[in-house]
Design brief:
The chain is an alpha/beta fold. The chain has 2 domains: 208 residues, Spore Coat Polysaccharide Biosynthesis Protein SpsA, Chain A; 90 residues, no CATH class. Helices cover 38% and strands 20% of the residues. It contains 10 helices and 10 strands. Strand 1, helix 1 and strand 2 form a beta-alpha-beta unit. Helix 8 runs parallel beside helix 10 and helix 9 runs antiparallel to helix 10.
Length: 317
């Protein structure tokens, strides 16, 4: 094992690795092994939050804890909390100065990942969160993207985070305590914990995208967010943008409304592809009305025209 565990009776680790799991017996061992292969000269801990899995997930978590008792803690739920609450409670149990995010179906591919990110965070207190590029892979090992996101590495502020939820969750390391500012409404917007955390991080400092590929993001069938399809995802994005405005300083709220308008454009496109021209037109109108008139003007006009020129209610016939 390369990672340094906490000696008995020692103080808090520098980095806590938060791993949330639900019916993840196929993937959890790989995620844990990728953490155990990390090369660090500082102590870490692994906190596994299992959301009352019905398969062998908890048995796997316990077996790793037995082999690494000073490194791994397992949170065993007596009832299902739901994705959002499981994330929050697992973050809350982390004792490190920094929290490294890893879902049970994803895994890290760079053994220096934690060392690189912790060094960056330690060197500059103005950085609230950092991440890196990832690959998109399928369960059978097919690489769908070699490098995501399609953005330049560097330092980003609140304006860019409002527009785009671009840091992949298995890449994120953030300062512990940021999650405590999460508003109550976030528990009802499934799958967007990462965007909420990044907005809060950007309110407190800068967010850095590191020019390294150090994790694989799994396109897992049956996941609570990705498996529900593009319409569901666009609607969740719309809901998030509607709520995000409430936690932003007044000078940034227009950006949130513009971001909501872009999500309505996406929703209009998805609905048009599904043949629901009536709903597509409604979404396109909302895209047009959400931000100021001149915000997104070209793209929202195209969305409105495309929705109105589509064949009416073709999916109903």
């Amino acid at each position: 094992m390369s990672s340094r565990a906490l000696p008995a009776g020692s103080s808090a680790p520098l980095v806590s690795v938060s791993i949330t799991a639900f019916n993840s017996e196929k993937w959890l061992s790989r995620a844990l092994d990728s953490v155990l292969l990390q090369r660090t000269d500082f102590p870490i801990e692994i906190v596994i939050g299992d959301d009352c899995s019905a398969d062998g997930t908890i048995a796997i978590a316990r077996s790793y804890r037995e082999r690494n008792p000073t490194l791994i803690r397992v949170l065993e739920r007596s009832e299902n909390l739901g994705m959002q609450r499981n994330f929050y409670d697992t973050f809350e149990q982390c004792r490190g100065k920094y929290i490294a995010w890893l879902d049970a179906d994803d895994y890290w591919t760079g053994p220096e990942k934690l060392a690189i990110q912790a060094q960056l965070m330690e060197s500059d207190p103005s950085i609230s969160a950092c991440g890196h590029f990832v690959r998109w892979v399928t369960p059978d090992g097919e690489v769908r993207r070699e490098r995501s996101p399609s953005k330049s590495p560097g330092r980003y502020g609140l304006e860019e985070i409002i527009r785009h939820n671009f840091l992949p969750s298995p890449s994120i390391v953030f300062r512990n305590g940021i999650h405590r500012e999460l508003p109550k409404w976030f528990v009802d917007i499934t799958g967007l914990v990462d965007w909420a955390v990044l907005v809060l991080a950007a309110l407190a400092g800068d967010v850095v995208l590191i020019d390294r590929v150090m994790a694989d993001y799994m396109l897992t069938p049956g996941s609570a967010y990705m498996s529900k399809g593009p319409e569901y995802q666009e609607r969740m994005d719309v809901r998030f943008c509607e709520q995000m405005e409430n936690i932003l300083p007044s000078e940034f709220r227009r950006l949130a409304r513009a971001a909501k308008g872009k999500r309505y454009e996406g929703l209009a496109f998805v609905l048009r592809q599904q043949g629901d021209s009536t709903a597509s037109r409604e979404a396109a109108l909302k895209a047009f009305r959400s931000p100021f008139l001149r915000d997104n003007f070209t793209s929202k006009t195209k969305a409105l025209l495309a929705a109105w020129l589509s064949e009416p209610d073709s999916k109903l016939r």
